[in-house]
């Protein structure tokens, strides 16, 4: 089924609704030349697509296995603030076969590499003292090997590093649990002092066992409202898509992204110039009035939502299924 809608009458957008990925994968509909013998890259979000943080979604593992038989090169691209190796380990612990993936690119990995190499002019200009907003209950994130000094006093900080939303990292390596409101008070002071922020997870929220959990992107958005400068290290910035395509040696014309967030996954794919699949059963399920996973969203509701977020998928599916 083809649905057509537009924000402006002279600017039509098309998306196709499907029940599974088989048609796309077997016909290679997203490739410029479907008959060309070259890699097809599938850039896959994890939370809200492959799993909910606790368990795989029904059919997700078998769908990956079927995709692999088509010769697809699959890369996990995630706004997770953790390193790529941790993401692969997480997927393995949930029952996914790591050998099915060509690799993983995470916001946390990009952040680590940019802070380590400092071959980017913006990062090269950063100092070494940082206020570290991180996780507490979910497990703090190590800054080992980066040569950074974690500070508590805003007066000593060169920048803010946002990995999580549960607390403040201490010089000892421990974490002091803090509320979002208390973290935002610190951000307001930092913004007034023109201290920049690096956000290692641009997501606003994520799916966790059908509930939504606040992510560092929410803090970064608030920081920008305070007038602060933010370097967003992940989707929807095309930096993460370029890194994923470089990993498997393909161009945008031979790539397709799959995600459940219109603002991050689909808008990012639009910016990177690649086709995309919007999974409606993830973070937008409530907005779309969906009561159970795999339920098909009302077409008019999808049209309204993509217009709201100004993010336009090539395909719309209820779940990551074959």
Mind sketching the topology for me?
Elements (H helix, E strand, L loop, with lengths): L1 E7 L2 E7 L4 H6 L12 E5 L15 H10 L2 E7 L5 H10 L7 E6 H11 L3 H4 L4 E6 L14 E2 L8 E4 L4 E3 L5 E3 L2 H13 L4 E3 L5 E4 L2 E4 L1 H10 L4 E3 L6 H10 L6 E5 L2 H11 L2 E5 L19 H11 L5 E3 L5
Parallel strand pairs: 2-17, 3-4, 3-15, 4-5, 6-7, 6-8, 8-11, 11-14, 15-16, 16-17
Antiparallel strand pairs: 1-2, 6-9, 9-10, 12-13
List the total number of helices.
10
Percent helix range: 25-40%
Shape: globular
Sheet-strand content, in percent, reads 15-25%
Strand adjacency order, main sheet:
1-2-17-16-15-3-4-5
Low-confidence stretches: 1-12
Q: How would you classify the helix and strand content by structural class?
A: alpha/beta
Kindly report how far apart the N and C termini lie. 17 Å
Order of helices and strands: EEHEHEHEHHEEEEEHEEEHEHEHEHE
- Mean pLDDT across every amino acid position: 90
Biggest beta sheet attributes: 8 strands, mixed
Radius of gyration: 20 Å
Using DSSP, what is the number of strands?
Answer: 17
């Amino acid at each position: 089924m083809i649905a057509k809608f537009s924000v402006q009458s002279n600017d039509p957008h098309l998306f196709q609704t499907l029940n599974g990925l088989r048609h796309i994968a077997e016909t290679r509909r997203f490739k410029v030349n479907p008959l060309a013998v070259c890699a097809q890259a599938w850039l896959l979000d994890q939370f809200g697509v492959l799993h909910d943080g606790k368990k795989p979604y029904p059919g997700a593992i078998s769908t990956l296995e079927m995709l692999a038989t088509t010769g697809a090169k699959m890369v996990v691209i995630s706004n997770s603030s953790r390193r790529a190796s941790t993401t692969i380990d997480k997927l393995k612990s949930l029952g996914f076969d790591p050998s099915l993936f060509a690799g993983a690119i995470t916001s946390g990995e990009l952040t680590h590499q940019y802070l380590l190499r400092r071959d980017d002019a913006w990062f090269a200009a950063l100092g070494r003292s940082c206020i570290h907003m991180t996780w507490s209950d979910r497990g703090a994130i190590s800054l080992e090997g980066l040569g950074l000094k974690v500070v508590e006093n805003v007066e000593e900080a060169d920048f803010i590093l946002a990995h999580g939303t549960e607390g403040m990292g201490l010089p000892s390596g421990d974490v002091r649990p803090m509320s979002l409101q208390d973290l935002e008070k610190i951000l307001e002071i930092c913004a007034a002092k023109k201290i920049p922020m690096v956000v290692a997870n641009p997501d606003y929220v994520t799916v966790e066992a059908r509930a939504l959990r606040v992510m560092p992107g929410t803090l970064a958005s608030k920081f920008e409202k305070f007038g602060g400068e933010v370097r967003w290290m992940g989707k929807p910035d095309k930096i993460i898509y370029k890194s994923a395509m470089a990993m498997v040696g393909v161009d945008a014309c031979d790539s397709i992204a799959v995600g459940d967030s219109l603002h991050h996954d689909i808008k990012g794919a639009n910016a990177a110039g690649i086709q995309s699949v919007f999974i409606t059963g993830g973070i937008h399920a409530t907005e779309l009035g969906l009561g159970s996973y795999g339920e098909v969203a009302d077409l008019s509701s999808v049209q309204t939502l993509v217009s709201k977020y100004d993010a336009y998928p090539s395909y719309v599916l209820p779940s990551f299924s074959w």
